[in-house]
Q: What sequence folds into this?
């Protein structure tokens, strides 16, 4: 089964908490803070691979969670870093945000990597908080949470040439002749229920990839038939080969078919009109087909299209078609573009986390402070220890949280809710 779209949840590991510990060995009467830092959480990394062809595995497993970092230890020992989680996908996979549907990354080539969820940073142990005035800190820093998000994986085949046309015009047969592919072939509509890929060899070190794109009928751009399921695969191709039943053996008008299919392609994505298109009139072996084909050929040539007459049964005209496709490809730059929205992130920008976000607001007469930085600070604080409490208060002031609360109108003894914990405000 060919699976080309999947929704999954990814979660990076939490950073380990810093340790609170003191040196208590014999002959060390003045032993100070001795707690080590927590290890960083593991990240979730997505890597493209040539050995994987579909997104089938993601149909059965939907949650991917990296390892947490280990808590810090005594004797200033660092906690172990959480193991990264590597997820392999086919080359040509788009990574989209599950909520906005915007593209986060486009893994067009094999062995590309992208950190989709970065592991949380490990917290500092109490040894890092020792100063000349605070020689025995009884608090440590909590580890940061790792990133988590819902994402959509969407595969767009990396083929140089896309075969398009109505069902039963001979696309699969042409693919099987030109390449070593063995698609299912039969005389009824929608024989092809999934894209078929084949490598067409020209000579030593010369070849191209051809894909039989199924599901194109009138209304495909609106999802009729197999519709959007496979229209996306035509976007990656460098050249389109449009196959028509030149014999009109099934009672359809080849020219009418040609305009209908192109209309569906351009409705789906108007940029597809920029792709070079070769027209193939197939089934020329059927009696009367050659005579009927001249008017079709003339009209298409007048509109600037190259037209080839072939028979997938007798193989007449197949070699001329193959070498013409190859010569055209030599003039078209290899660039597997995506025509989706502009990338939301690119490169390392996609791996940055807004760890220091601080939100201070007044809502329904309640003063609220929240954000990942404040949450980490809150859970790092030992409210039974005066030094830890003083550190918490000083950090809130340095970060401008107190000033912002005052600007919003908070008064002495009023409540402020910090990450759902209620505190009394005072200066």
A:
């Amino acid at each position: 089964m060919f699976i080309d779209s999947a929704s999954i949840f990814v979660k990076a590991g939490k950073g380990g908490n810093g340790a609170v510990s003191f040196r208590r060995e014999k002959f060390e009467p003045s032993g100070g803070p001795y707690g080590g830092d927590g290890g960083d959480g593991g990240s979730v990394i997505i890597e493209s691979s040539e050995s994987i062809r579909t997104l089938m595995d993601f149909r059965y497993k939907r949650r991917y969670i990296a390892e947490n970092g280990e808590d810090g230890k005594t004797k200033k020992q660092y906690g172990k870093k959480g193991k990264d989680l590597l997820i392999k996908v086919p080359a040509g996979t788009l990574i989209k945000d599950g909520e906005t549907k915007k593209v986060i990354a486009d893994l067009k080539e094999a062995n590309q990597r992208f950190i989709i969820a970065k592991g949380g940073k490990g917290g500092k142990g109490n040894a890092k908080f020792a100063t000349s005035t605070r020689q025995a800190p009884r608090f440590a820093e909590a580890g940061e949470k790792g990133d988590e998000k819902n994402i959509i994986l969407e595969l767009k085949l990396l083929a140089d040439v896309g075969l398009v046309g109505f069902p039963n015009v001979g696309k699969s047969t042409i693919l099987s002749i030109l390449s070593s592919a063995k698609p299912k072939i039969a005389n009824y509509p929608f024989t092809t229920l999934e894209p078929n890929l084949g490598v067409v060899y020209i000579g030593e070190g010369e070849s191209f990839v051809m894909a039989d794109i199924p599901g194109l009928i009138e209304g495909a751009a609106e999802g009729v038939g197999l519709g959007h399921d496979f229209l996306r695969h035509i976007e990656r191709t460098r050249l389109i080969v449009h196959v028509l039943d030149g014999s009109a053996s099934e009672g359809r008008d080849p020219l009418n078919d040609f305009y209908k299919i192109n209309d569906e392609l351009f409705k789906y994505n108007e940029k597809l009109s920029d792709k070079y298109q070769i027209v193939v009139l197939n089934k020329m072996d059927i009696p009367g087909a050659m005579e009927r084909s001249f008017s079709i050929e003339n009209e298409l040539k007048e509109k600037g299209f190259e037209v080839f007459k072939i028979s997938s049964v007798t193989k007449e005209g197949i070699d001329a078609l193959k070498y013409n496709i190859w010569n055209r490809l030599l003039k078209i730059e290899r660039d597997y573009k995506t025509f989706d929205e502009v990338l939301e992130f690119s490169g390392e920008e996609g791996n940055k986390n807004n760890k220091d976000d601080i939100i201070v607001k007044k809502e329904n007469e309640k003063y609220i402070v929240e954000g990942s930085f404040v949450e980490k600070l809150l859970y790092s604080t030992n409210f039974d220890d005066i030094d830890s409490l003083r550190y918490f208060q000083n950090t809130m002031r340095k970060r401008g949280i107190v000033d912002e609360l005052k600007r919003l109108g908070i008064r002495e003894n009023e409540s402020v809710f910090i990450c759902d914990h209620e505190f009394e405000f005072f200066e």
About this structure: Residues 19 and 35 are 4 Å apart (CA to CA). The longest strand covers residues 148-155. The chain has three domains: 5-156, 161-329, 359-424. The chain has a mean pLDDT of 85.
